[in-house]
Amino acid sequence: MQPVVPSTYLLTGAAGFIGARTAELLLAAGHHVVGVDNLNAYYDVRLKDHRLHRLLQGDGSRVGSAPDASAFAVGESRAGNFTFVPMDIEDPAAVAALFERWQFDAVINLAARAGVRYSVEHPEVYASTNVSGGVNLLQAMARTGVKKYVLASSSSLYAGAMPPFSETDDVTRPLSPYAASKLGAEAMACAFHHMHDIDATVLRYFTVYGPAGRPDMSPFRFIKWIDEGTPIELFGDGSQTRDFTFVDDIAAGTIAALRPVGYDVVNLGGGNEPMAINRMIQGFERALNKSAVIDRKPFHLGDMRNTQADVSKAARLLNWTPQVKPEVGFDRTVAWYEANRSWLKDIQL
Questions:
Q1: What is the pLDDT, as a whole number, of residue 1?
Q2: Predicted confidence (pLDDT) per residue in 23-67, tens digit
Q3: What per-residue confidence (pLDDT) applies to 60?
Q4: Who contacts 25 (Cβ-Cβ below 8 Å, separation ≥6)?
């Protein structure tokens, strides 16, 4: 086997769920990672602190005392091959300064505003981060000659299509501002590919779960609620399905996307039979050895009823297939939760 030639990657959204795990895998392979994140308080930043502390060779225990104030926001942090810079990709001057300071081999753009429901109330925030922030990165790449771009997109673009979702499905009529912003980000990557010969891989992620996951997503919430005996807020009857994808698989697929493709769009999903939300709840009940109390609410019109990824293109183009079955991933997620329960009990949902 040929030794890995160390590269230097700019990874945005480095304190995020997928970003932090991607950084861990890159660092384990011997690469240098410059991670940036604006550490916004869309969800409790103590989870972002936990992830960053692990990246900075800690045990994940250094977290701030407040849900909206990160312990890592005061300045740069370094450990080994990882440098963390607290900054916002919406600031073009800050982005330009970053590219003047480092010579990057590629940019992995995982910084984004997430969440369909919040986007309905604040569409301008999504346009600013997901579209304009991406443009700032692409312009800096064009100026400095960085030729590889990996962009995180979303399966939310497939709303209204029939599963299993293929990259050839028509996604030109997004049903939420979140999906619209992701479509705009994809279009910008395509335009810069044609204008500046930037090799761009767009990854449409499906429902991602795993240790240190986002507290605004159902896997984290359901585990915490079941463990604490709090009623689960379940929108709909629980028969809606998701193509759950373990975070390690998503991170590995993100790294696989660094290979040259020209410009292409690729699904990263679990590749499993879609799992009903009710079945996921049962899996968490089993792992926790506790029963859920369910508070049923009307189905949210902005949500998708069923998702399922066609991942054949990822296998063909990236040599990537998901490895972790949902039941195994659920057990690993619960084990992480139980190991960190002492501070997770204070996380705000």
A1: 40
A2: 999 999 999 999 999 999 999 999 999 999 999 988 877 887 889
A3: 78
A4: 248, 251, 252, 255
Q: Which of 208, 214, 183 is nearest to 16 (CA)?
A: 214
The reported pLDDT for the residue numbered 302 is 63
The pLDDT score that the predictor gives to residue 160 is 85
Q: Of 149, 178, 205, 337, which one is the catalytic site residue?
A: 178
Spatial CA neighbour of 157 closest among 121, 205, 190, 109: 205
User: CA separation (Å) from 1 to 4, 27, 132, 252, 315?
Assistant: 9, 19, 41, 19, 21
* Residue numbers in the chain where pLDDT is lower than 70: 1-4, 302
Tokens at 97, concatenated: 């300064």
Residues found in the chain? 349
Cis peptide before 164 (omega within 30 of 0): yes
Instruction: Measure the CA–CA gap between 292 and 276, rounded to whole angstroms.
Output: 16
- Other CB atoms within 10 A of residue 17 CB: 27
Known catalytic residue: 178?
A: yes
pLDDT digits (tens, 9 = 90+) for 92-145: 999 999 999 999 999 999 999 988 888 989 999 999 999 999 999 999 999 999
